Amino acid sequence: MIEVANRLHSVEEYYFSKKLREVALLKASGKPIINLGIGSPDLQPPHKVIAALTESLVDANANKYQSYQGLPELREAIVGFYKEHYQVNLSPSTEVLPLMGSKEGIMHISMAFLNPGDKVLIPNPGYPTYQAVAKLLEAKPVFYDLKEKNNWLPDLKALEKQDLSKVKLMWINYPHMPTGATASHAFFNQLVAFAKQHQILIVNDNPYSFVLNDSPRSILSAHGAKDVCLELNSLSKTFNMAGWRVGMVLGNNEHINAILKVKSNMDSGMFYGIQKGAIEALKCSKLWYLSLNSVYEQRRELVWKLAEALNCTYDENATGLFVWAKLPPYLKSEEFIETVLKNNHIFIAPGTIFGSNGEGYIRFSLCASTENLEEAISRI
User: Fold this and answer.
1) What are the chain's domains?
2) CB–CB of 337/362 below 8 Å?
């Protein structure tokens, strides 16, 4: 048998890749599983997005290779979106790079800037892919604590007491997944100053800023941010287009060009019709966001009731596509969710998959209908 590369010994298969197979087997055996574990939007994209995709299929260019930098109209739409919603000015030709999903961007950015042995600051709790990609590239993950008592924000003073000389990259993610915490404009300014002082590239992963959040913010709005920051964004959550795989990375010309060197060797451009649909999504009026959030507000009320039925507490001010709930102090996250899955046929994500600071917490997704949520409550 051919041996796998050594780098695969440093990572495991993604938790949801494994767990969803288990959930599918339970469903196949007749168990009425309600899945509240994964954040895959179940609502439809805007109608005009579907129409744009459909109409584009007869275009003479529809089935050709596309530009590695995306359609000029898509980059212009991204620039307009950032100007309108984040008050950030960008150049469509030099500071915007469309991606086939922001998750892929995590790998592209890491490959562009990390050498073996470089250190990467990673939030605990946080998105597991940050750690996995660092390990695959033989960089060294260095976890920084996010704690409830500090509103799930990094303690920059504590970080500065560490040896940061080999730190090249720092991942942040606000609004935060899984906790739903937000960062203020003032805090983004502090992060930019921290990055400049220590010569660290900060990447804000920002796919949740329009879900149950009245104040969307971009780190690029902070003074001087483009010198030391990149931002990832995505259409997956805001426009219910997770399966379309449309993301973007934004930053200064030098950083974007470095990422393009990687990306252009890894894909051959995004499908034309998907880009046309994405352009229409980015032009949506404020009515779209109001409509989307009215659905999620109803669902969140029901998830709060479910959390209370399970004797959990939660922060009503949290944002995003999930409810991060605290278990009673004597319970462990993974044991708890396995009990609920077995006894109540409800799948909830354990906080520990996001890091050790997730112990004692569980995460509910809002990607389930009110009917399913009411059914879940009735099972407790």
Assistant:
1) 6-44+286-379 (3.90.1150.10), 47-282 (3.40.640.10)
2) yes
Dist CA 242 CA 234 (whole Å): 9
- Distance in angstroms (rounded) separating the CA atoms of residues 307 and 44: 27
Q: What is the pTM of this model?
A: 0.94
Q: 144-173: per-residue pLDDT in tens?
A: 999 999 999 999 999 999 999 999 999 999
Tokens found for residue 251:
């930053």
The Cα-based distances of 216 to 172, 211, 219, 311 in angstroms read 15, 9, 10, 31
Is omega for the bond preceding 178 within 30 degrees of 0, making it cis? yes
Find tokens 């212009």 and name the residue: 76
Amino acid code (one letter) for 64: K
- For residue 225, what are its two tokens? 């941010």
Question: 213, 233, 237: which is closest to 366 by C-alpha?
Answer: 237
Spatial CA neighbour of 213 closest among 171, 172, 176: 176
Peptide bond into 72 cis (omega under 30): no
